[in-house]
Each structure stands twice: as structure tokens, then as C-alpha cells.
Q: What sequence folds into this?
């Protein structure tokens, strides 16, 4: 169906200031800049993939089309910013200040567009937008056979691309030394190849990549005499596992610096942009030479590893994490502050966070070394086990509260992610980094309009609020029934594509599961729950995952009745 010219003009008049066609376009043309680099070319492909997957409209690069979207760069907007404007002949123009900005502009454009059975209706959002935080990262934990380990390369590629559309520009991963006997352990080689593949995808969408581990982590083959003394952990917040080495022993320090050097070599292709040192979980040494860890051993070893990083790869930035420092107080924040006031040549960023509230020290006493500050909010595991085992786990109120605690002092961060069930939480964090003042629920609304339909955005916000209210499994209240009724009503308004997509299924299943648990008074029994958990397991590829905490609950046929 081609739109008649007269009808097009009438339509343009109706929608003042935009080129929105009232009739969905079955054919869309995407125009890529002639001098497009890797990221701009990728942005055009992602735009095409998103449109065809959501509404079946045809996307072409040449020929006649009902809707034309022009991509361009214009270096006057501000770093990584974008502008969406009307062009001549009803075209939509997306300008990026740079290719990253162009990709984020494509994301904004898609999220304000409509995808219906008849085709694609271009978004009406017009204006300019610039990110506030330069380091908008996401930390994907690849372990326990979780989604990030078990998903196919194509699924991971799509997922990382989807995250980039929200403005994420840093991908953070970890290298779990303690799981392997050496870098040449076949399992280690397999993991390294997996991580390199993920990093290449990230680079293709303009992300910087960072890798980290507990600073004093070692391989299982490490001789006992090099190993640490467990750290005092009276509050049980530091974690106590892994193979941790004692930097009070010179031979162990030598080995750890060598291991970090080999880590840089392992990922020289596709190339690292940052490394992250973690103090805890796993990590630390409680011997007399190293404790308090963040005040002594950790600082000494950080300086030694950084000296190697600076010499070998001067372009690589060093992120020094202070996660769970002073839990309980033992002088760690004070000591790192004094050390960096004297000499900050070994650090470029301070990362701070905790299991619960954001630490007060960097806010009240200043960030050590006056360095840029990053957070590390936990978006996956809070208050539910197995993680994601009950479907989507959006936490807008919690994330908003934690964000407010950071007092707009951050240069970014890397939310900690274990799986795809907290996709909404990722979107919320991405938008805090982009626009510190943007309320979490506004992002939920935009997410729902894009992933489900603009017609159900407000209803979805109400469902998400009910999910958060019922987050604690033992406290599911009557609003679970209302949420499930609402979800069924929303579903009747969705396109077949949106209804079948995993993002909708995990919302639907969460509503169903909460409603069933309300009926069974928390007992995991019955066919409905069994089938719902089974479907979640399939969506997460968690069939072979660590049973707790990654794989959703399993109900045997005998209990299913
Ligand atoms: Zn020690």
C-alpha cells in the first residue's frame, strides 16, 4: 500500500511540526551517511532489525518508500548527543554528534515510534538530547551458566545492541581466575573466547570495554604458601570464596602482577579500554601485613599492578573499586583518601557501592584523589531467589531511592547484572546516567511504549508498581490479582510480535506466578506454576544453570496435580 500524495499532505497538516504519517508505513527507507563508520553502519542495521522484527514492515536502503529515515552526523551537538528533526519531503532526520550519538538517537526514535500490524509509524519526538554521565556502563556477570554464558552468540549480539540503544557506552565483564587452573585451562580458554566475542559486539556499537576481577585473585593451581588469610567479615558482607593471594608475600605479588599482565594480553584483541580492581567478593587478605585490606594490602597491590598497566598499555584507564569498604568501619576510606591525595597516578576512577545504601564517605568527605566517581548498583539479586526465578523483577522505587542517594555526583557506573529478567532495571539505570533528573517511572513508561505498545504504557507502569509492591515472595498481596487482570487486558492489545517477545513473556509470567502464589499461599505447586517456571527456564537458557541462584524453581509432575 502506497500512501497517496494528497493524503500524505493532509496528514502532514494534521500533525503540525512533525512528519508523522497517520497510516502505518509498510515500506521504510533508511539512508546511511556516505562516510559511515562501523557504528553508524551498525546503527542502520539495528534500526532495520528493530522495525522488521516488531511490525513486519519492509526496510530498504534504496527505492520508493512510505517513510524515509535519514541518518547523519553533525559535530555541533555535544559529545554523544543527538538531534531528531523533520527533513524535507516528510523525511525524518536523526543526527548524532558522533556515531555513538547517532546510535542513541536511533534508540530514542525507535522508542517513540509505533509498530502495528499495518506497519511502522515514525516517532514524533523532536529535539536535542545530551548525556550527563560519560561512563554509562553495564556489568554482565558471565558465570553459573546464566544467560550471558548460555545464550547463543546471535542472542548476545542482539542483546548488547539493544542495550546500546538506551545509551550504554561501557561494557564491563569479569574474568574469574579462581575457577580455572591457569589461562591455558581449556575452560579458561573457552571463557576467554566467549568474552572476546562479547567485547567485539560491544565495540561494534561504540562501547568501551573493561575487565576486572578481585585484585588478589589467583588460579586454583596457586601453591598454598602464596594464599591469603581470610578477611574478618563480622557482617558477612565481603564474601569469602575464591582463590585469594597474599600481597604481603613478595612472591605472590610478583605472580599477581604477572597474571594481570597476561590478562591484558588475553584481551589485546579486541582491546581493553579499562581494568577494574575489586577489593571483595571474592578478594582480600586478613593477614597482619594486609589488613585492613582497603587500607594496606589492597593499596600496595593496586600500585604494583597499575605500574605494570601504565608501562604496558598507557591508554588503559584504571577503575579502583571500593565496594563494601568499611563494612564495618576499619579505616579503609580514610586510608585510600590519604593515599590518593599524595599520589593518584595509579588510579583514574573510583567505583563505590554496597549491598544496601550508597556509601556516604565520597559524598561527605569528597571522592579520594578528587577522581570521577562511578556507582555499582545491584539490579538482579535483591530480595528474590532464585534471581529472576519469578519473571521480570522491576524495582523502579528502589533504584530511584538509591540514585537519589548519589546526589548527582556520579560520572556514571556499571549496574551489576546476572540476567535478562531485570531488563527494565537496566533501562532505568541507563536513563539516570543519561539524564539524572529523569524519574524511573518515566523510563518504565517509555520502555513499555516501545517494547509493548504506546497504548498500554500507563497500564504497564501500574503493573510494574504492583510487581515492586509484591517483590518479597512472602508478602504477595491482593494487588497481584489486579496486576494479572491488567496484564491479560494489556495482552489483548498487543501485536503478535510484542506478545511473543521474551520481554513481554517475562512480564506476563511474573504476573501469573504472583497471582498463583497468592492463591497457593506461597506454596510452589500446581500445573500453572510448573509450566510458568519451565517457560522462564527456557527463556533464560537456564536448563544447565546452577540450580540456585540462577535456575527458576522446578516443580515435579507429581506436585503439579
Ligand atoms: Zn596478606
A:
Amino acid at each position: 500500500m502506497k500512501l497517496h500524495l494528497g493524503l500524505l499532505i493532509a496528514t502532514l497538516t494534521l500533525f503540525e511540526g512533525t512528519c508523522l504519517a497517520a497510516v502505518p508505513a509498510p515500506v521504510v527507507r533508511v539512508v546511511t551517511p556516505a562516510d559511515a563508520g562501523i557504528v553508524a553502519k551498525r546503527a542502520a542495521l539495528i534500526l532495520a532489525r528493530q522495525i522488521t522484527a516488531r511490525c513486519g514492515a519492509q526496510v530498504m536502503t534504496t527505492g520508493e518508500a512510505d517513510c524515509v529515515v535519514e541518518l547523519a552526523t553533525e559535530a555541533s551537538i555535544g559529545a554523544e548527543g543527538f538531534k531528531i528533526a523533520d527533513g524535507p519531503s516528510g523525511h525524518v532526520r536523526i543526527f548524532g554528534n558522533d556515531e555513538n550519538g547517532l546510535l542513541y538517537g536511533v534508540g530514542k526514535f525507535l522508542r517513540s515510534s509505533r509498530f502495528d500490524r499495518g506497519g511502522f509509524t515514525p516517532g514524533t519526538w523532536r529535539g536535542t538530547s545530551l548525556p550527563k554521565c560519560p561512563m554509562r556502563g553495564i556489568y554482565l556477570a558471565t558465570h553459573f551458566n546464566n544467560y550471558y554464558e548460555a545464550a547463543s552468540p546471535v542472542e548476545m549480539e542482539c542483546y548488547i545492541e539493544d542495550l546500546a540503544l538506551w545509551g550504554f557506552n561501557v561494557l564491563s565483564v569479569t574474568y574469574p581466575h579462581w575457577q580455572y587452573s591457569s589461562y591455558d585451562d581449556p575452560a579458561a580458554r573457552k571463557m576467554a573466547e566467549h568474552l572476546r566475542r562479547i567485547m567485539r559486539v560491544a565495540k561494534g556499537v561504540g562501547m568501551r570495554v573493561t575487565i576486572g576481577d578481585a585484585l588478589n585473585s589467583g588460579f586454583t593451581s596457586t601453591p598454598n604458601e602464596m594464599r591469603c588469610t581470610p578477611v574478618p567479615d563480622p557482617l558477612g558482607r565481603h564474601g569469602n570464596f575464591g582463590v585469594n593471594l597474599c600481597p604481603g608475600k613478595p612472591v605472590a605479588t610478583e605472580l599477581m602482577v604477572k597474571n594481570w599482565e597476561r590478562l591484558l594480553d588475553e584481551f589485546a584483541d579486541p582491546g581493553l579500554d579499562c581494568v577494574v580492581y575489586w577489593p571483595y567478593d571474592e578478594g582480600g587478605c586478613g593477614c597482619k601485613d594486609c589488613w585492613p585490606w582497603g587500607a594496606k594490602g589492597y593499596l600496595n597491590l593496586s600500585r604494583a599492578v597499575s605500574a605494570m598497566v601504565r608501562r604496558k598499555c598507557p591508554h588503559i584507564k584504571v577503575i579502583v573499586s571500593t565496594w563494601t569498604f568499611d563494612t564495618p568501619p576499619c579505616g579503609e576510606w580514610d586510608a585510600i583518601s590519604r593515599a590518593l591525595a599524595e599520589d593518584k597516578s595509579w588510579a583514574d576512577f573510583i567505583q563505590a557501592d554496597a549491598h544496601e545504601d550508597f556509601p556516604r564517605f565520597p559524598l561527605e568527605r569528597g571522592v579520594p584523589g578528587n577522581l570521577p566517581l562511578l556507582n555499582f548498583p545491584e539490579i538482579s539479586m535483591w530480595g528474590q531467589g532464585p534471581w529472576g526465578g519469578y519473571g521480570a523483577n522491576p524495582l523502579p522505587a528502589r533504584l530511584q531511592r538509591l540514585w537519589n542517594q548519589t546526589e548527582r555526583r556520579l560520572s556514571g557506573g556499571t549496574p551489576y547484572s546476572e540476567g535478562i529478567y531485570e531488563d527494565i532495571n537496566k533501562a532505568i539505570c541507563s536513563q539516570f546516567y543519561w539524564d539524572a533528573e529523569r524519574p524511573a517511572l518515566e523510563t518504565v513508561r517509555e520502555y513499555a511504549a516501545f517494547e509493548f505498545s504506546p497504548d498500554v504504557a500507563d497500564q504497564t507502569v501500574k503493573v510494574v508498581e504492583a510487581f515492586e509492591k509484591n517483590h518479597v515472595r512472602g508478602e504477595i498481596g491482593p494487588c497481584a490479582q489486579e496486576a494479572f487482570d491488567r496484564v491479560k487486558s494489556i495482552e489483548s492489545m498487543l501485536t503478535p510480535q510484542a506478545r511473543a517477545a521474551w520481554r513481554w513473556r517475562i512480564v506476563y509470567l511474573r504476573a501469573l506466578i504472583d497471582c498463583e502464589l497468592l492463591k497457593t499461599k506461597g506454596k510452589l505447586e500446581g500445573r500453572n506454576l510448573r509450566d510458568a517456571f519451565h517457560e522462564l527456564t527456557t527463556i533464560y537458557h537456564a536448563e544447565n544453570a546452577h540450580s540456585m541462584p540462577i535456575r527458576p524453581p522446578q516443580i515435579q509432575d507429581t506436585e503439579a496435580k
User: Anything to note?
Assistant: The chain has three domains: 5-129, 214-376, 452-560. The CA atoms of residues 517 and 523 lie 6 Å apart.
